[in-house]
Design a protein that fits this description.
GO terms for molecular function: 3'-5'-RNA exonuclease activity. This protein is α+β, with helices and mostly antiparallel strands. 31% of the residues lie in helices and 22% in strands. The longest helix is centred in the first third of the chain and has 29 residues. The two termini are 38 Å apart.
């Protein structure tokens, strides 16, 4: 869920059935009343059952996307892996707290109901058979998703958004595939602390200067009334940076023969295109924290961990956030503007293989790519297959999401990664 805020089976209908209705005739005619009422009851019940059956059968089931081999992969490597393989999926599941029919008037009303939509999401997640799940806009974590997903052999870690927000980011991992070693949480509101001293000093100097010139303090930049009323005074950097966004990262030891360690980060960057500078600041903070975490893991476990970063970045491939994240990759250097020295070189999973998908978010008002999986290229890890996404004209996305086929306004993305034999 982002700027165009906001899936599923029609609720089962109860079918009361009685083989005998109370007679409206006298006791003397009970025999005839019984014989006349029972067939009617049966017919009425049959009609109900037939109607309900048609309604159920006409409700589409959630789509189960497939993993397809990356172009250029040879048949031998696909049939006989060179190393340990694991499947990772990233999915903004659309927090139920943001699901309102007024925000998704294009969506079938039954597909937005919590009971139907939550079941559809679980169906999608189950069919993906991921070893590691990175979920964004994850609400109802303790009350529903934690137990529902962990019952299929997963364990999980979770961070809820700051302030009064009810959703957050979670990583679910198959216990038979990976062991959790370390985890750290990322609060992007910490950016406020980093500029607090500098901001206080500059604001004080500016105020003194403005007071000496005009005797009053004025804002030199005008913001719309909606910005001030809903987002606070965006001229104040401490207010501007406080967007209550979060991320979470963890080091996992894979249960393969080499016990290779993989760092997985999951995040949800702020949505508003008017605050592009805030989104870029969050992306930079993410990678700085990730670099520190990688150093910690490397020293603590005497290893060279692989790094995977997944999430909803609320940025299209042409935005500065995307450009920054891939600017450290030599193969992308000629295609993107180098904004800053990047602490960890990354390449986009889809972008570096088959090209970014046409869209990962789909509503009538906006359709584009916002979700990504990045990884730090090395000899120890490589993607061998990708999760397939629908084409723009595919019937299952016609009219926008969510719908019966897709329970979120976003689509899941994912890959199968292979760890080379002999890596630490």
């Amino acid at each position: 869920m982002q700027k165009w805020v906001p899936s599923s089976l029609i609720s089962r209908l109860s079918l009361p059935f009685s083989s005998r209705y109370p007679s409206t005739h006298s006791q003397g005619s009970s025999s005839s009343s019984s014989s006349s009422s029972s067939p009617c009851s049966y017919l009425r019940s049959s009609r109900r059952s037939c109607c309900t059956s048609k309604m159920r059968s006409s409700t589409p089931s959630p789509k189960s996307p497939k993993f397809v081999s990356i172009e250029g992969g040879d048949i031998h490597s696909r049939s006989k892996p060179d190393g340990f393989r694991f499947r990772l999926v990233s999915y903004n599941i659309l927090a139920q707290a943001y699901v309102k029919s007024s925000l998704f008037p294009h969506s079938p009303s039954p597909s937005l109901k919590w009971k139907a939509r939550s079941r559809a999401i679980l169906t999608v997640l189950k069919n993906l058979e991921a070893d590691i799940l990175c979920l964004q806009e994850l609400d109802e974590y303790n009350s529903f998703y934690k137990n529902s997903i962990e019952s299929s052999g997963y364990s999980s870690i979770y961070i809820q958004r700051s302030g009064q927000k009810r959703d957050g980011c979670g990583i679910f991992y198959k216990l038979q595939c990976a062991e959790l070693l370390l985890e750290e949480r990322i609060e992007y509101n910490d950016l406020v602390k980093s500029i607090q001293h500098e901001s206080n000093s500059s604001v004080s100097e500016q105020n003194d200067m403005q007071q000496s010139e005009s005797g009053s303090i004025e804002s030199t930049t005008t913001t719309g009334p909606s910005s001030k009323s809903t987002l606070g005074d965006l001229n104040d950097p401490q207010v501007r940076l406080k967007r209550d966004c979060v991320g979470i990262m963890a080091a996992f030891k894979l249960r393969d023969s080499s016990h290779h360690i993989v760092i997985v980060a999951n995040t949800h960057i702020y949505w508003d295109p008017a605050l592009a500078d805030v989104k870029l600041a969050q992306a930079k903070y993410l990678l700085s924290r990730l670099a520190e975490f990688r150093t910690l893991v490397s020293e603590k476990f005497d290893c060279t961990p692989s790094v995977i970063v997944a999430g909803d970045f609320n940025s299209t491939p042409g935005d500065k956030v995307y450009q920054y994240l891939v600017s450290g990759n030599p193969s992308s250097a000629s295609e993107v503007e180098c904004l800053d020295e990047i602490p960890i070189p990354l390449c986009s999973l889809y972008g570096s293989t088959r090209g970014e998908p046409p869209f990962t978010n789909c509503t009538p008002d906006f359709t584009d790519t916002l979700d990504y999986i990045f990884f730090s290229p090395s000899d120890s890890i490589k993607p061998v297959s990708l999760l397939e996404l629908p084409e723009p004209k595919s019937p299952d996305v016609d009219g926008g999401l969510p719908n019966y086929y897709h329970p979120s306004d976003h689509l899941p993305i994912g890959a199968v990664f292979e760890i080379s034999t002999g890596t630490e």
